[in-house]
Amino acid sequence: MNDPASWIWVLIPLAAIGIAPFKMWIKVKERQLDNQTHLTAEKTAQYAAHTERLEARMRVLERIITDKGIDLSDEIEALRDKPLN
């Protein structure tokens, strides 16, 4: 094996063996990224739904404050009795 070209036949299988764990590591990282993406999407949807509910309540409060023809205490009591969604 004094010839440099003969080392190629040894290095190629060694390189192939060394690549296998790297490929497995890449697959694990891809799965982790997919899971994190899924969790982030779920949290984003939850935050959007929560924000939508808060905005709806805010619109009701704005309407109560600006509408002078409605008895304020009756409206507040009606909101207290209403279940949250």
Automatic annotation (TrEMBL):
Top-level taxonomy: Bacteria, Pseudomonadati, Pseudomonadota, Alphaproteobacteria, Sphingomonadales
Residue ranges spanning the membrane: these are 6-26
The scientific name of the source species is Sphingomonas paeninsulae
| Keyword field | Membrane, Transmembrane, Transmembrane helix
Presence of the UniProt keyword Transmembrane in the record: yes
Spell out the protein name for this chain: Phage shock protein B
In which domain of life is the source organism classified?
Bacteria
